[in-house]
Amino acid sequence: MAIIQVNHVSKEYRLGQLHSVKQSLQNAIARFRGHAVPLQAPFKALDDVDFRVEDGEVLGIIGENGAGKSTLLKLLAGITVPTHGSVSVPGSVSPLIEVGAGMVPDLTGRENIYLNAVILGMRRAEIKKKFDAIVAFAELEEFIDTPIKRYSSGMQVRLGFSVATSMDSDILIVDEVLAVGDLAFQRKCFDRMEDMIRRQGKTVLLVSHNIRQVERMCNRVLLLDHGKIFADGKPKEICDLFYERSDVRIKSQSSQAPGKSPGSFQRGTGDLELLSASLLDSTGATVDKIEHDSDVTVKLVFEARSALNTPTFGVGVHTTDLLFLATKDTEGQLNLRAIGPGVFTILFHIARFPFLPGVYSLRVGVAVGELHSVVLYVEGIIQFQVESVNINRAREMNQGFVPLEGRWEVDERASQVKEIAIREKHAEGTVQTLLKS
Amino acid sequence: MITAIKNIIDYRELIAVLAWKNITVRYKQAYLGVGWAVLKPLTLMLVFTLVRSFVGIPSGNVPYPILAFAALLPWIFFQESASEGVISVVGNAALIRKIYFPREVFPLTSMVTKLVELGINVLILAGLMMWYGMAPSIYVAWVPLIIVYTMLVSLSIAFAGAAINVYYRDVGAALPTLLSLLMYASPVIYPLDLVKNKLLVERAAGNWSDILYTLYTLNPLAGIIDSFQNVVLRGLPPDFLALIPGAILVAIALPISYLFFKRAESHFADVI
User: Could you tell me which residues of chain B have a Cβ less than 8 Å from any Cβ in chain A?
Assistant: First the structure.
């Protein structure tokens, strides 16, 4: 028996401003007279979404911004109703759509626990019983009688999370809440969620942009795209699909003009300008996709307004979410005393590009003088895709950014077993077994 | 209507906690605390008493200040619980976007909040009566019923008003002004007896007198204020003749208002 049923649900919103009274009246009169009223086409936040969730399932919902994730959760929590179709949620729902719903800054932690818990639908007697556990989990014993306006934002979130997860409901709806608090508390939240999922067998709906988290916790994932279910299935497959799609999207968004692509960051003194940046493959052709483990050259064209004394150039690789992966500068290699003014080109040759398939970006820094004062620093100058004919993209995401070089063996002298059999490929393709007594 | 009552019972704790929150937040950092609730009726009472010394309003055998104060209690309770009820849904937009419970909780909470303030003012009234050496009669037992009836009156306005206010904020802005106009059409400054005498005894409007009086008492507050004064101060039972027209109006308006609210409710989160 499905614990959540979503039957061909659509949710439409009218775009633009709400009509004024005058406009509404005019429209009503026009309609009364039989004139057609120009209607704005509604925006479909959800379009014919249809699925069931079984008892005990942990369903992740992923998708880009505006895909309809939050609208879907709002429908499930009963906050709003679908335009077409129906939603049936017979069990009790504890929505963590935003932790700390209705918390009041002027009230103390203690008062807010009661307030928040009652708003979520707990009974007073139940709260009394769980009160100490809630406080202990939030680690706020000392501050419980302090108004929460004096709390740090992390403390407030901890309190909210602690209250919401202490509810005994059949279904837990979580929207992006685990991304808050310090690392230790995030860990605790994870553990509590996992406990609810594995031990108590609760049905959980998890909406998150943290795909790794979704992949880890869920046993089924929905990928929404523009209000439609794009894919529904095993976490692994769906998350890989999502990565692929967002890689393509990031690539298509990034213009090749240096420092102008979305998400790029630039600062400098203005003495030096990066005119262009490009990637060249081993044949010297400009490319925007490179092969893993191939030789690549970064070509940077600068224009200096004045001469740069003892300049140092640096190039780094980072992910699109600005995780810096590797950097190399000219120090000790290219000892320039001065360069400029004028236009000049710097080449940086990377032998056997080490990063696994995905979308990466480059950053460039230029410093002058003994003190290395920065004259130019740009992040996200070009985005490029790394591909590999050998490595399956789906496997790579769990394997990090670089392959680890190494060699495996069984320590035969330290092992006391009856048999260690090693398959060894012969020229004929047969397998020979080595026996060790 | 049955679901409405069931909801009230199911969500009584929520209403109680939210009302407690309203009161705590409003008075927490104020030195006088809940004492501020008596400020409005007391000042108005003083103003009315001052005005009366110029124009002369008969007050029967009850001292005028206490008569005015007794009129102000149900009036202010009605006025504030209606106007706060109307803005209550919009005022809790953050909650409405995040969590579901029956939305009538908000107007009801506003009312319960005002009920607490009314309770404090009743204590002041009791103090005033002691000051004037007045003892209530057995008819004072009517008070709870009169208050419940006043609640139904303000809910008739609050439900529909709150729902419309989500779409057009004009309602919330206009209502306080409209209600203060209604005060002059209610026996707050003057006693109902004054109107009754003019219309039913002196027949000031000729044949229209009866109709005018019915129209006047169609305002439920006319009957409420008069009955409240009767049972608390005059030692008389409520004047049912003055209560009935208003009660009929409320019996029609409240269900309509409530159903309207419930129909609009599911779109609150989208529009608010």
Answer: 13-14, 17-18, 21, 24-25, 28-29, 94-101, 167-168, 170, 266-267, 269-271
